[in-house]
Amino acid sequence: MNILRIEGLAKKFGGVHAVEDLTFALEAGRIHSIIGPNGAGKTTLFNLVSGVYTPTRGRIFFADQDVTALPPAQRARLGLARTFQNLQIFFNMSALENVMVGRHRHLDCRLLHSLLRLPAIVRSDQAARAKAVELMRFVGLESYIDADADAMPYGGLKRLEIARALAAEPRLLLLDEPAAGLNPAETREIDELIKRVAAAGTTVVLVEHDMKLVMGISDHIVVLDYGRRLAEGSAAEVRANPDVIRAYLGASAA
Amino acid sequence: MRLLTPRMGGLLALAVVIAVLPAFFPNKFYYDIAIKTGINAIVCIGLNLLIGYAGQISLGHAGFYALGAYGSAVLTARLGWPGPVAMVVGAAAVGLLAFVVARPILRLRGHYLAMATLGLGIIVAIVINREIPLTGGPDGMTVPALAFGDWRVTGTQTWYWVIGGAVLLAVWLALNIVDSGVGRALRAVHGSEVAAETVGVDTTRYKVLVFVISAVFASLAGSLFVHAERFVTPVEADFLRSLEFVTMVVLGGMASTFGAVVGATILTVLPQALAGFQDYEHLALGAILMGIMIFLPKGLVPSLAAQWRRRR
Amino acid sequence: MAEFLQFLVSGITIGSIYALVGLGFAMIYNASNVINFAQGEFVTIGGMATVSLMAGTGLPLILAAPVAIMIAALVGLALEKFAVEPARNADVITLIIITIGASIFIRGGIEVLLGKDFHRLPAFSGDTPIMVGGAAIQPQSLWVIGALVLVVVALRWFFDRTRLGKAVLATSHNRLAAQLVGINVRTILLISFGLSAAVGALAGIMTAPITLTRYDVGVMLGLKGFSAAILGGLGSSFGAVAGGLALGVAEAMAAGYVSSAYKDVVAFIIILGVLFFRPTGFFGGKGVERV
User: Fold this and answer.
1) Structure confidence at residue B159 as a pLDDT band (50, 70, 90)
2) Chain C closest-CA separation from residue B23 CA (Å)
3) Do A145 and A95 meet the contact criterion of CB atoms below 8 Å apart?
4) At the N or C end, where does chain B have fewer CB atoms within 10 A?
5) Can you list the domains of chain C with their CATH numbers?
């Protein structure tokens, strides 16, 4: 089943064609990567898929449902989650609360019940809290369970965002440069984490520059260049593709 | 759970303070100040949800307050409606108005939002001032007592207990909202609207929601005010009144319900304590606003709480 | 016809004041992205300081006015240095509240120093109205409109012809780039605040003979000037001028033909309309948020 299908997607910013005539499909249950030189349109693509940007042209299908016209919150409710290249952590909350917000679509949010703190709300909250603790353990943040978000180190925050995204129990998880700014040891941990997430059944799509990470983990890679699809295939196929090598790889393949 | 204790403790402490305070009142004047403090506190508790938790701004909240006030005044004095009914109907009407203007207004950010709320507040103030046959204009109007059937709520002391109870109720409701999925969604909107959307929070809906809730709090406070004081003038709709409310929230602490109460208390009691310095009121208010926002932008209560946590 | 002309002139006159105040908002916003809610207070300082100087020291208007303008400019500089600069990196809401606090503070200061009474400045060239097409035009109106024209021409020359002016423009387009080419952004900020204050004070002096002056005239004028700036599009200095004139005329027409009691409401309804339907105003640009 194709969890994500893009057809003829295009996005213009004034005179800049960030994404142009993009078409590809991603199979469910696999780990996919989107790579390409800087400015290739990778983060724009993520923003289009998650609904932050509106496409100039083209359509987006999530699990065969046309979501092109849906706002981000509704796509999230269908099972789409993401992290951000420039962390978008809720610094005005604790680490645990950040993850609990991720659980929003599973929470009881009835106003009157919340105002009066009826038992159903208390139960829903306790369940959310328990799940959040579990998720923080899953991503390796046990020691920060009682911490405030603004007291955490950069590497921890990247994992916190992943925990928040996972809290929604998404079918598709978009990770925007999860290894950016991390040292080799931390990158290895992210590598492990992504494998665990995929093993649990979520389809993962990465945008990443760290080629070692990408080549090692991906079942399927899409290469973008100047907003267009340059090549697609397994890690081995992409690595050997002369167009890709010419446009991008240089000496960075492991 | 861990979070329950500070909250219940805080509410209990407030209840104790309210119960014990009158023992220290030498005369009726003090009861009156306490009543005014409580009413301001109720407005600020609601406004704090909007400004402190959801990260929006309103420079026109006195408009909602005055609409609640004059709504009750006009319905009871001119149309003979029973007080409680007028109060509820007024709050519902204000809530509806807030709902209608919220959507277009909350699409705006920062200074545009500030300006729009300000404009609304001023329009309300002007209308109240001009519609003399209805509102008595700048001279104000008298208001009948609040009556539940045969029981007329009169007397400063009685009103102290009524307002005290109302404040406790308002604090309880606000604390419940904050510590729930709804409250966290609101704080997420403040933290990062983009991220909130991507976890499924309909940010517009929540902004409208908190705007309406804060307007209803203000309206109910306004209704209580006119029945307690038995008189109302358009000064309650003034731009400066809106700024007073904002100052109270900002001073006491944004994103802190108890902070809102503290801020309201300080800024209601202080001018009375410095009665001889009436002329310096503006100077002091302006200095406080600037000082707090420059040096203690989180406000008194959260800053003190942070200091406390760091010492442990 | 005479009536229409009367309202038109009246509208352009008060619109010129709004335009000058709006210019002040736009200049500061362009340089620092801050909406200076204290802008209206500079108008008050202009009028009140001139009155006090003339009454207290016997200075003639021709000398008192420039001194008042300089006082206002100094207050503007102090505002930037002591209230805005320390909170440079704070979020928008915080900055808004700071400038509001500053406006209340300045107003309180004027109240304490100069009292709560209304004051009047004598009209610069007499009170005899000039008859044009059946309409009676106050000579002071011509002074006001003249002041606007003068300021617009002077600013245009400043921005186009002087290095400093170009530096201010550069800072407003791209602050980082301006810093990188060696422009001292701190100084630019101070200059913008000082200039804004001076322009505001000039407006206050020009209008004092017509509308009287008092410690709190700045509030409404500030709000309407801000409306003018939004109407024209916050990024555009000269849009603010167009916005102010449009606002003044609309207000005068409404006051004349509909109801003068609700004249202030007109201004705010227009503003709400603009904010709801076209928040970028007539000449403003649109921004895109990068995530």
Assistant:
1) very high
2) 36
3) yes
4) C
5) 2-277 (1.10.3470)
pLDDT in tens, C265-289: 888 888 888 888 877 766 665 443 3
Q: What is the pLDDT of residues B45-93, one digit of tens each?
A: 999 999 988 888 899 999 999 999 999 999 999 898 998 999 999 999 9
Hey, where are the domains in chain B? 4-238
Which residues in chain B are contacts of A73 at CB distance < 8 A?
197-198, 200-203
Distance from CA of B101 to the nearest CA of A (A): 20
**Cα separation of the two ends of chain A:** 31
pLDDT in tens, A26-78: 999 899 999 888 777 888 999 999 999 999 999 999 998 999 999 999 999 99
Interface of A with B in 65-104 (CB under 8 A): 71-73, 76-77, 80-82, 84, 88-93, 97, 100-104
